[in-house]
């Protein structure tokens, strides 16, 4: 474990809530989240939002599969490059939006096809009478957001809508700029060559980074509950202030209630928020 990790207090927590409109309509929450903390101190975070439309009846399974695929693939790379952070940084910088994105898409589709077959669900036929795998994938459509945080760098991945933000004393910053993502029609893992729509970013962490710092991954049900990005960022800053003042236990204990209230008063959509909070000992 590095000196940086040894002298920090790091917490990971999150929640998913069923959207207010989905409760009224009897539709299950389509969001999923997953978090992994490695022995090295590296953290892998992922959230996904199943499309939930009539044409995507199994999108909850799609989002669940998506977060598991991201955490498995990134965890394997962290293991492969254990003790070699510079080599991993170079690899992710070079291959993040190509090889990594391709692996994520391919593994997601491989697992979806296996699940679909295992459940003995019908496989549609294409115009030539062959099995239409693309049609199967569309039944499970989902977005995917992921973040890997090590002592040395962070790697972010985004396919579709949602937000990855960093909050510190300097304010709120989108790790991946939202204006690079389509507005109303989101990208999806289910599409052909979905990897081409993935956006990745890798950035070194400052050695003397000012703490505390908070990273949050959230599905679009959260940001869509506010009238503009400024109001959304204000809420992000509020979470940061609450963590500093009241601590992780208090905030994590109330998070599900707060997200439910946000959905009821805002978008009506499912909301998932996953947090990483790092502070110096004594802060």
Characterization of this structure:
This protein is an alpha+beta fold and 283 residues long. The chain has one domain (3-280): PPM-type phosphatase domain (Phosphatase 2c, domain 1, 4-Layer Sandwich), CATH 3.60.40. 40% of the residues lie in helices and 24% in strands. The protein contains 8 helices and 10 strands. It has helices at residues 3-6, 20-25, 59-80, 85-118, 133-138, 220-223, 229-246, 248-265, and strands at residues 8-17, 31-37, 43-49, 144-149, 153-159, 163-168, 171-174, 199-204, 213-218, 271-280. The chain has a 5-stranded antiparallel sheet with strand order 1-10-9-6-7. α3 (59-80) runs antiparallel to α4 (85-118). It is globular, with a radius of gyration of 19 Å. The mean pLDDT is 93.
